[in-house]
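Reopening this one. Same input as before:
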Amino acid sequence: MYSRFDKRNILIVHQEIIFGSDDPAEARKIGQLLRADKIRKLLPRTYTSNLTDSPEKIVSRHLFPLIEHLFPKATLSHRSALEFRPTPLGNLYLTSRQRRVYRWPGVNLRFTDGPPAMLDDRPIYGSLSASSLERACLENLLPSRLVEGERRVVDRTVLENKLLMIMDTRGEAGLQAFRQRSEEVADAFRWHRARAELGKIIGALLSTRPTKVLQSPEARARATGIPFDADRSELFRLLSAELMSREWPDRPTKTDTALRYANLAFYESYFSNFIEGTTFTVGEARQIILEGIDLPNRSGDAHDIRGTYQLCSDRREMDTIPTNGKQLLEILRYRHRVVMGGRPDKAPGEFKQRANRAGSTYFVEPDKVVGTLLEGFKYLQPLRHPAQRAIFMMFLISEVHPFEDGNGRIARLMMNAELSHGGQSKIIIPTVFREDYLLNLRKLTRQRKPAFFVDMMEKAWRYGHWLEPLDLDELYLQLQSSHAFLESDEAAIVLPED
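Same output, byte for byte:
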């Protein structure tokens, strides 16, 4: 990326940054360019061919590569390992085998003497790394004096909120694993006081230690009562009331054998992925699911549909439903990890860290995901019929949208688990029904009209009960005859009584 000498020892200056050289010939070339005003000095033994922008802007643009080249054994540490940018006072904190301040244009590099990089420290650029999250949290609990109006550690509330985010995205088990690794790091560096303090904070967040040690209002609220989206809570109340106001028939499952259960699960996973844009022909889906063959350049899509099938064809898994809020969170994370396991960039099994939306609909903010799920789960408790619970559960997950991706598939898996557990036929949303399904979801979200949504879901349940999963090919013909594979603008669904 940066300027260098070619095979003829001629300096290439089309890039902004030029590093000095110990080679006499190369040093002469740099001197000639300096005297010809084709480059200018930026830092010690560092030059730039940009004669227009300010040094501050150039340094800011290439900050990490400059540090990596000039201080190859440095580690971004303390508050900078959490913030990854200069502080408001222009400081960047690093650890190396020196204690010194380098004042560059626009930024001060403040080095402290400390342990070298560890294997699990996070790479930034080339050999430059940042302290692992466990190490960074410990560093921010080490003693730090005020220097030129600033400390090298973050405020205690910032650290607590960071740990809170770890718990929200990784779950309690993830936070406990984080604590175990941090203890190993602390023992290696003999940071005993920081180890004890971090243990108190994590214990308070997990409700195993007194919460009075917490200083962050958000952390205290989470330890004593989790924040949630009040508007969504009202939607859940309205839907629960609508579901309880209706009489629900008995539509027992027709999948009394393992083969029939697998036949229906094949199309359940096929349509659930198709509705999200993961489109295959039925023949391609058979290759992926039943023969284990991936299509070229579509390994991620193949894993999505295969992971969905793995869950919805497993009767034991689909008979598992949450009986309390903690189980709800655990089941959600597990099923998401299975479905999205082929897409590590989508954080399989972890709740979202960034807000997400569909069109103009913004879903629950990341810091309120757990609280809103638990609050919504309260409105599931009075619902007794499996269809009531299934429809509510699907909307709960869809409306919170707890993951970065895969929310629709997880919502429908959770829905059909309620039906499977209750011995009832599953709900299938075929392609021809997709627009009606999405339209009524939005109508409940935006207009707060649950009746239309419940009508639509009841119709889909009636359709699912009509299907006969005796044979995979015969089931295909039945689906085809009802226009299941067509788009809504091509045909209307054929329901049992039609």
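So the earlier flakiness isn't reproducible anymore. For the record, Residues 156-189 form the longest helix (34 residues).
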